[in-house]
Amino acid sequence: MEDDFDPYSLPPEVTTQPHALIGMLGLDTSNKATHKAVWEAFALNRRTDRTPLHFCHLNNDFQMPPMKQKRQSYEWYIPKGILKSNWIPKYLYHVPALVVLFYDLDWNDSSWTEKKNEVAGQVQSLKTVLGGRNSRVALVLIQSGISVPGEDTGAAEKAATLCTACDLPAKHLFVLPHSDVHLLGYTVRLENALSEIAWNFYQGEAKGVRAHRDFLNKTNHTLLFVRHQFKLGFLNEMRNDAQAAIKHYAQCYHHLLELRSTDTNLHEIRIVAAIVNYKICRLDFTLNLPRDAIAQFRRHIDLFRQRTGPKELIFEHYAWLSRQYQIFGDVFEEAVRTGLPAVQTQHPGFYYQQAAQYAVLRRKTALQVCKEVAAPVSDLLEGWSKLEFYGQRPWRPGKHSLEPPEQQREMEGIKEVQYHEVKEVNHSDFIIPLFSSAISQFKKYRCPRIKRHLMVQMAEEYHQANDSSKALTLLNHVMWDYRSEKWWSLLQSASVLGLKCAFNTAAITEYFGLALEYMGKRLSTTDEEKKRVHNNLLRLLNGVTPEPEPGTSSEILTAATEAWSTLLGAQVSPITVDMTALVPCLEVRASFQKSQYHVDQEVSVSVKIRCGTHVFGVLRRPVTKQHLRLYCSGPIFPGVVTPELCGGMKGSVPPGFIPAGLQCLTPAHLTLRNTYSCTVFLSSLSVGVSSMSHLDRLVEANPDKLVLPPGQVIEVSLHFVPHVEDVGKKLKVVDVRTQLGAPGSTVVVWLHWSGSGNEGVTMHAASAPAFPEFSVLCRDEFDTAPPLVETEILPRQPLLTVEVSYDTTALVWEWLPVKIHLTNTEASMVSDITINFGLHSSSHSNLEHATQVCSASGLQSDKLGSQVTGFTCGNLGIGEATFLVFYVKSLTSSERAYTLKIEYSVSLQLGGTVVCCPCTYEKTIQTQARIPFQVSVETQSLKFEKLARVANGESFLVVPRIKCTSHVPITLTNSSLSLAGEVYQIGTDAASHVVNTELCEGEMGVDCFCIAVDDKVVANSAVTLGQYVLYWKRSEADSVAVSVSVGLPSVVVEHWGVWVECEVAPQGTVRTPLPLAYSISNHGSHTAELALSMQVSDAFMFAGHKEVRLRVLPGCSERITYTLYPLLAGNVHLPKLSLSVESHSPGQPTSVDPLLARILPTHIYIMPQSKESDQRISLLGNNFSTLVIG
Amino acid sequence: MAVCVAVIGKENSPLYVWVGSGREELHLHYLAHTGLDVIQEKVAAVSKTPGDTRELYLGLLYASEEYKVFGYTTNTRVKFVIITDAANTTLRDNEIRMMFRRLHNMYTNVVCNPFYIPGEQITSREFDRGVAALVAGN
């Protein structure tokens, strides 16, 4: 009995794709390179788009299978079976449709005649070998040169003679020019021609088969109807006519169904049906008729599903069904690979799935039916794989009868098949690949849930096949999804299996995880089951091998027990169960009590624990209690937590701690409540806390003994002192860990929840409503209250007293003092005071450039920014006070916010240690800056008239007016002019007129300076005069004076050739002669011819030239004097002088009157005559007149 | 008549599963669960073409050798699954559709109960009775 023979699958020759067989003779591939190339061009690397042919290389001594004796009459012929197993291989491999003889012969070969005769001889001997078979013969001449048929008339003639000599039809002679370049093209053309001949052969054969039909009768030859139609189908397939083949196969299937079937011949019928069905489905898929294929397969299954065969061999039925589905799945998948689109609800996966299910059923029934099988006495199954007919029984070969010929032998045969099924077939080897095929298909067609279901089934199979570790791996993949989708029923089924697998493989971590889940209330296992698992857990904690799961077979049990004892014998390294991925019976929620803590406060974390497992009224057992030892330590950064903390807590755990706790409840109490709670010992609990700086640490506490009643929530508070480094950072609950099992027990199990306990799958275990709106209905705070996972550590609340005094209304440009009084009201010395003061960080960037801040010492510095940082202030003893001032300058009038940040450190007694704790005081102050005064500057002539044009050398006035808009009085301390280079001040000792002037809001001060522009300035150009600098401060005593520069207006400079100065006394007296002189000077380079006239005035009589012509040489001056006799008192008009220039030098005005109007006085005060005649007013001589306006 | 009726929540967790007595309960649970694959695909395919008023009845999801699985989804993505025997030919598509409508009405009544928390398992005697009547075909 071969190992790889499967009596229920298709024979390999059936599944081979039938192609026409063409034999190739005369190719010496080993010696001749051209022959090798020709052979390879034909036979190797055939692509799918080439004609479907199968070439075989024949040697000269090949033989054909012998022909059977032709039967003259079918009258007495009783067929022995349906399909002969040697027929298909015969046509596939042994009977070529065409034998091609290759021969090297050129048309112009020198020894043409001899070679022609040799070819003829070879053809003749070939025909002899072929014998009675109808195989065709073709001759191919391999030629080295390319000949064009039209050119060489001798070739056609020679071809004809060759054909005659060989007795071949002309169409069977071919020429294959051998050139490397085009060889493949020639062979493709040649093989097309050859395939025609080959297909003709199969058509002939089919005709022969069809001819038999007339001899058949319906009584004896029903089997032959099937066989002949099959042959016709197959031969049509060989000649590449799929349509005709399907027709014949369908006919064949039809005939097959008409056969009477009994338990005896059923197997043969269904094996043949499988073959025919396979052929039909495959051809349907090839012809792109997937619906037909599926319909045919459905019909096939429907027809045969009921025909189960004998009870003793029922498993054969399922084996066969499983094979059918698998074969169809394979065919379907092959079609998909070649481009058939499949959909989610119709793809090969479904067939593989069904095949797997039948394979499981096969094993199940086989185990039922063959309970008592003994090893066979005789080997009746000998030759099972080499039977003459498909599907017959090896103990009665060649017998197709409705009843078994020998009852006894039949019974023995069946026994042997049963024995074979149970002992020699490895069912898992069938089932597991089917599942994995199905899984990959369902994955491809987006059916994740079906895939998971299959994975569970596959895991079951692995478990059966004693490969529990693989099963466990598969289950782990699946269970996660069932948990997150809350399909507890499915989870339970996987969990039960998983627990078995974990037990079998002694996978202790998985065992703990699954057991904790199993005990939870989500899985609706029975109370006894939960108790059993719980007991196993307790055993395991004490280092005892757990009880086996129910249904564990004895040999597995032995292995498993051994594995457990090896595992438990050695020191078991601590186990960590990731509770986040489970739906366990223990739930925790770790939450900070507040979202913010100051660094000197104790942070408290509350851990709520809910034990979800409880079984009522089952057993009276001591209620044990949860022992919580909560601790906090810094395992990652040792020394993060102060040593006293850790040491104190760890040291307080007495030995035998847990057993003492166990006996805490009185039996009376128990009876009252009558509960049994699946106890979970927690010997410690810790919460991992992490801040941004990765300072992870565990928080530990050791509360008094706690009783955790089933289903209720126990809350444990943990406290720790945050570190100074945590200030400004967020602390986060990273994980919660509890230790299961007493300290000192063999097995240490850590339960580990990442996050605050409701992350991952664990969240699904809680019964929080899907919509938070309904949390009101769900009263369970444990489920609904979201834990505070993060808390922020704030700096310590500062106790330093800080008083800040300043004027909220600042003046633009001034240094506004901000006075800060610090008083140490802390309980200890304040050290390292550092002050940062500056513009608030959220201020607009424009303000940064328009704001200057400095400390008192930095007032004189030029580089001032908007911040003063790191201003240190030393230490302050208890109760001491200090005072400092910052100055703020606002360059624009807008609102500003400043931040004052005082950092200092203070040593504190925190949790038993003295810690240097930093504190920060922050205050924001606001100022509104306003412009203190407005300066407008005017240029005026000496007559106080507004002027925009001046002559060079002319003196004129600059008059700044300062209007105060400040809310507080300001004092102008000084002022000066900062003049441009071409401008000079008249009278260097002239001082400011506003020195120490105090102005209040609305008041105005006027300053005045006399300046002139020097001669070098180009005519008619604008000259910028310079700046007016004003020094001012608040009138308060301690303020700092600042300077403000105001730009002076610009004036246009004119050049006049002549200049006139007037000499007159500031005032005259009525009827007293008053001398008046005009001196006219020529500044130009030419001689000036001037016409001067003096107009008459009513107020005066005068003596002097009324009209005169003058000639003034360059650089000289003329003096014209008048004596005026005032007639009227008061501010009277002087006689008007008018001057015109007569020589027309270019660029000079003819009339000088506009200049005269500006520079000469027009009026003069004439006093009335005094009573005392001796009071005379002296003349001022040559001085210029200065008039002061009152 | 039907051998299994399942109400499955928005996040694909079972809210109610009824299995005919004497049936392989676990297997039917698996079938109802695996039907979600097809429902998801169908719903996703429909939601790609906006503007269509969606047909709630999704028809036959898939058929195995023994069972046929039908699906229905409400506008709030609550899914109903009804499983019948594959051999049962008395239940036509229209009858199944009517069963789903009735089931939908019954579910609406459950949700209208102010004490019912949506997304929780359905524990309602009224609903139990309704389902029992539904599968009995009267």
From TrEMBL, chain A:
Output the superkingdom of the source species.
Answer: Eukaryota
Keyword Metal-binding among UniProt keywords: no
Localization recorded for this chain is: Golgi apparatus, cis-Golgi network
Q: Which residues form a coiled coil?
A: none
Q: Where is the Trafficking protein particle complex subunit 11 C-terminal domain?
A: 1089-1137
Transmembrane portions of the chain: none
Q: Which GO terms describe its cellular component?
A: Golgi apparatus
Q: Which UniProt keywords apply?
A: ER-Golgi transport, Golgi apparatus, Transport
Known InterPro entries for this protein? TPC11 (IPR021773), TRAPPC11_C (IPR025876)
**Keyword Metal-binding on this protein?**
no
Q: What does this protein do?
A: Involved in endoplasmic reticulum to Golgi apparatus trafficking at a very early stage.
Which family does this protein fall into?
Belongs to the TRAPPC11 family.
Question: Which protein is depicted?
Answer: Trafficking protein particle complex subunit 11
Q: Which organism is it from?
A: Scylla paramamosain
TrEMBL record, chain B:
Question: Which cell locations does it reside in?
Answer: Cytoplasm, Perinuclear region
The UniProt entry, under Gene3D superfamilies, shows: 3.30.450.70
| A Gene Ontology BP annotation from the UniProt entry | endoplasmic reticulum to Golgi vesicle-mediated transport
Gene Ontology cellular-component terms listed: perinuclear region of cytoplasm
| Coiled-coil intervals | none
A matching Pfam family: Sedlin_N
Instruction: Report keywords, A-Z.
Output: ER-Golgi transport, Transport
> Which family would the database say this protein is a member of?
Belongs to the TRAPP small subunits family. Sedlin subfamily.
Q: What is the name of this protein?
A: Trafficking protein particle complex subunit 2-like protein
Record organism: Scylla paramamosain (Mud crab)
